[in-house]
Amino acid sequence: MPMILTGIPASPGIVVGPAHLLRWEVPEVPPRVIADHEAEPEIAHFHEALAQATTRLREVRERASKHAGPAEAGIFDVQVSIIEDAELRARVESVIRQGFGAERAFDVVMLEWREHFARSQHAMMRERVGDLIDVHIRVLSLLLGLPDHDPVDLPKGANAILVTHDLTPSLTVQLDRERIIGIATDVGTRTSHVAILARSLGLPAVVGLLEATTRLESGDQVILDGAAGTLTVRPTAAELAAAAARAAHERRSRDELALLAGAEAVTRDGVRIILRANVDLPDEAAAAAASGAEGVGLMRTEFLVVGRATMPDEQEQYAAYVKVIAAFGKHPVIIRTFDVGGDKLPVGGFPHEANPFLGWRAIRMCLDQPEIFKTQLRALLRAAVHGDVRIMLPLVVTVDEVEQSRFLLGEAQRELAERGVAHRADVPLGIMVETPAAVMTADALAERVAFFSIGTNDLVQYTLAVDRGNAGLATRFTPLHPAVLRLIERTQRIGAAAGIDVCVCGEMASEPLMAYALMGLGIRQLSVSAISLPAVKRIVRGIHASRASEAARGALAAGTAAAAEFLLRTALEAEIGAPG
Prior knowledge:
- By secondary structure, the chain is α/β, with parallel strands linked by helices.
- It is built from 24 helices and 16 strands.
- It has helices at about 40-70, 70-75, 75-85, 85-95, 100-120, 125, 130-145, 170, 195-200, 210-215, 235-260, 285-290, 315-330, 360-370, 370-385, 400-420, 435-440, 440-445, 455-465, 480-500, 510-520, 535-540, 545-555, 560-575, and strands at about 5, 10, 15-20, 160-165, 180-185, 205, 220-225, 230-235, 275-280, 295-300, 335, 390-395, 430-435, 450-455, 500-505, 525-530.
- An 8-stranded mixed sheet has the order 1-8-7-3-4-5-6-2.
- Helix 13 runs parallel beside helix 15.
């Protein structure tokens, strides 16, 4: 019998294929004690599992290196070094000799190590927590005789749909579009890292399914509908035919929207809107430029550190930035400095905190590690020679953070000058406005920066006190809440009064109805995922900015998100019909 699981739409598209179920989590270990004479055979069993895991990791590393690159695949070298650690081996052997089976001994020691590393004062040790978890899962699975599999095990052309609890860095670097055509996860929301990554890669995705990994089996045929947020398991012939028809309709719609790539983004009453692209990976730049984007409103740089064994050097970063700049010619390219933390963790899951969204992340981490930050700033200043580059700081909440960043930017300039390296010294510096604190002090911040870019993903989260990564709270994550709309309107108004650009680059800008609301609030620059750009341009060209403003005024005065949405949707449908 078919079964339909409903989650959260994360990335549009309809795909049909076999499910590749990946339960990447620490398995339960049944209690087992051993006699003294059984200790040596258990130790031998332990060493055999370590050898198998090492061989496996090297195979996975080689395959991942071919499509993700050797630097990204280096995560597996770190995990091999953990397995080969003499202290770890000795500790597990000692616990085995105390009467524990090999799997229980390894489980106990890994939990000890994870706790120790997580509490360390040294960042490099905290970085290793995620690697320890991966090693914990892999070796324990071998000790228990459980399946050991990875996404790269799939043959090319498998056209499988990856179903897993969540995407860890070690799974992310294995994603290969020649094998995986869609992603379904138990956890996540529209603004979680996995959802943004899926949209960036053009992979249909549904997140927040809660129980997908326990409700189906590998090999089950499924229909994944990324727009509807559904996963149909073991579909009927009629359901397959309906999915094929919907997919064909989506393709026709995309083809029609693609014709807008060269058209100007001007409303029916003559208001010009600048549409730029959000870029996650350098390889996306060419497609984003072809979509009609007038530059990059947000280049995320986390790809340089997420899923990596080591921090990238200046030259590697410079090359990545130049690749994007080259794709956009004279158009602006706004590059955000490392926004690591929250749900975007570098290899090792650092920082390891009870509440990472309120912890050591983004600009805080960069300012506390000035050498890492200056390496990125030097690379950006060098890349700026090749185009209109602008630097953007994430999660700024105080003027001090801007001043400290300017000081380090000055140091980076001096260091390049001393080395005789070509660079630009006049690169504009702007900030992400992502918290109520930044909005309420926007007048002071506007005196010190060249532009504002509103990051709605975090602004909604911090304003409504709703964890954007919590699938159970997804219905409470309401970007059209009047409180959020009022903060956006205030930011735009203060930015305009100060004569600086104000853009919205969060996922809110990629939704047709929300883009309409933003234009009504006076926003004239939007940065959206490349896949969403044609649809947003269609909205721009089909509306009157004056009518959007009138609807937005009503939404600002509304008492609830539902009321605000109703007003905005009614106004938009009156102009162009249902936004879809």
